[in-house]
Amino acid sequence: xxxxxxxxxxxxxxxxxxxxxxxxxxxxxxxxxxxxxxxxxxxxxxxxxxxxxxxxxxxxxxxxxxxxxxxxxxxxxxxxxxxxxxxxxxxxxxxxxxxxxxxxxxxxxxxxxxxxxxxxxxxxxxxxxxxxxxxxxxxxxxxxxxxxxxxxxxxxxxxxxxxxxxxxxxxxxxxxxxxxxxxxxxxxxxxxxxxxxxxxxxxxxxxxxxxxxxxxxxxxxxxxxxxxxxxxxxxxxxxxxxxxxxxxxxxxxxxxxxxxxxxxxxxxxxxxxxxxxxxxxxxxxxxxxxxxxxxxxxxxxxxxxxxxxxxxxxxxxxxxxxxxxxxxxxxxxxxxxxxxxxxxxxxxxxxxxxxxxxxxxxxxxxxxxxxxxxxxxxxxxxxxxxxxxxxxxxxxxxxxxxxxxxxxxxxxxxxxxxxxxx
Amino acid sequence: xxxxxxxxxxxxxxxxxxxxxxxxxxxxxxxxxxxxxxxxxxxxxxxxxxxxxxxxxxxxxxxxxxxxxxxxxxxxxxxxxxxxxxxxxxxxxxxxxxxxxxxxxxxxxxxxxxxxxxxxxxxxxxxxxxxxxxxxxxxxxxxxxxxxxxxxxxxxxxxxxxxxxxxxxxxxxxxxxxxxxxxxxxxxxxxxxxxxxxxxxxxxxxxxxxxxxxxxxxxxxxxxxxxxxxxxxxxxxxxxxxxxxxxxxxxxxxxxxxxxxxxxxxxxxxxxxxxxxxxxxxxxxxxxxxxxxxxxxxxxxxxxxxxxxxxxxxxxxxxxxxxxxxxxxxxxxxxxxx
Lengths: 422, 338
Fold this sequence. Notes:
The complex is a heterodimer.
Chain A: H1 2-10, H2 12-34, E1 52-55, H3 57-65, E2 70-72, H4 78-85, H5 88-101, H6 116-126, H7 138-155, E3 160-165, E4 171-177, E5 181-183, E6 191-194, H8 205-241, H9 243-258, H10 261-272, H11 279-288, H12 292-306, H13 309-316, H14 321-357, H15 370-379, H16 388-416
Antiparallel strand pairs in A: 1-6, 2-5, 3-4
Helix pairs in contact in A: 2-8, 2-16, 5-6, 8-9, 8-11, 8-12, 8-14, 8-15, 9-12, 11-14, 12-14, 13-14, 14-15, 14-16, 15-16
Chain B: H1 2-36, H2 41-50, H3 56-70, H4 76-88, H5 103-139, H6 143-154, H7 159-173, H8 193-230, H9 233-241, H10 245-281, H11 287-296, H12 300-328, H13 330-336
Helix pairs in contact in B: 1-12, 1-13, 2-3, 5-6, 5-8, 5-10, 5-12, 6-8, 7-8, 7-10, 8-10, 10-11, 10-12, 11-12
């Protein structure tokens, strides 16, 4: 046992997989201890707010009027502001004009955000509405005039007046926010960071994802335990008893290998009904449909062990079937069973995801699973409206868990089957 | 020669009988599973259908319809034979969600989309994956060091995940392909050039996503099988004899291929299931999307028909693979003619 562990530690594949898996597991356990937010709380009013920090506008405005909480920074704010207000089309048109009539050399100006300042400076210097502008239709000329005046408007100092209703119902000026007034984000009491934005219900995707990963891992574990239990039982029975029992069990096993488990999963999940379909139920159903691989490998191992000397010795000593299996067989097949179990966790998580995407996942409003998150994201067409944060992290987590488990499995395979070693 | 043919015949007959039995069991399962559930299956299923309905007479009608369709007043075996008789006539009932369309019509219009998508995609992915896996095993250094981790990761991306990622990159961002459907929404299916071009245009991404996922899994399996074979005694002996490398590779490829074919037969069900869910991402008009709409529409007759047709599809494909296997593996010939 100790030797095996040492060998496993030396297998790079196993270790990489193990580290990834343990990291995911640790994250899932530790995160809820630090962030005590309800994963299903609907924070956002709208759907799919993008990732970032959201700060209260009212707070920002009040802070900016408190002199010790507002700061003056000598940064030219107009360029950034302009770049967000002037569209790329307008910039292209400006460059076009400047190159044709302003005598600016081609290629010196660009539409890039950080060069808007330069573009506007050149524009103010070179633009002249009285230029004959040969070859330009009247509508286009008017467009440039409009563009010019709106630019001039934007360039004016942008003080914002803050006023409140006084006692007589008239607006009274309370303060003025100049161009160069800044507040520190740390001074804003009301703010919330969504590292992965919000989903279609306005829930924080990161928190939801962590809890969903936990639930999905749980589903994987339960499904794996159920499947391994059934597989082990039938495999031992078939391998040890042989004869008719073996034939019958193998017939059933082959049958369920060929009949797609996906179909059986759908049929059972649908018939169970929505109310009964909790997390645990879904996990058990998945386990019930994925035991065939374990049965096969356990059976073939048992058959090769059945007539070994130590097993025969045990039989001759009058030990019971139970003891022979427990002492003389199980330790020898343990590695195969563990390997099959690991693969079943990953296929269980995948099965839940696929089932949920068909609308047959755990029907519960109390927890999130990876599949349910994916299902909602696609139902609200996150993939078509560019809300990558609602589905991409979910896919990544599923792929990472499955990747790490498969790496562990490959590493173990190489340790236990010397022929596969590099 | 006569002897050999006899061996094949025995093998084929055995396989055919086995698959026939499996088919019967699958059909029985399709019938029994929904009826085995605790409580009254008709009321459970009908309750799901009537959820949100307020009209009492309509609810009554749904219950009556289900009771009629299931024939619950009769004993189980009679229900079964009634169901099988209808099935043989191609009568799978009337769809609830797309009333009054017949279930058999809906299924037969979507099945071809699925077959035309999945069959070529899985074959191409399987072939490419095996070639890449064998090349990786043969080259080892360099190519293998890059290809193995990449394919290991790709093979762990679920099919629907791959579909969403491809869709986002190539359809939404780059506009190289349409985002959804099997053909342009402004076209009516017919055999004209614009329609066929539109179908091909919509075909690219779903096809690519299934191929990529299949390649990943197959390449890894083939790689380890080939490494196993490359270390076998016959390879060492052949090298010792001075047989050309290209000839040895041919032996190795052929021998490593056999378990891969068996592997294909065993994992076909899982592959098809994954690809069906990937279809949903593209709103491809195949069985996967039909199944989704049936489940969301709580349309039991349609769900049952979809699962049955998927089972039949997978069983037929499996049978075909196994029959093909016999032609390639000489050991079967030998074993059967003993």
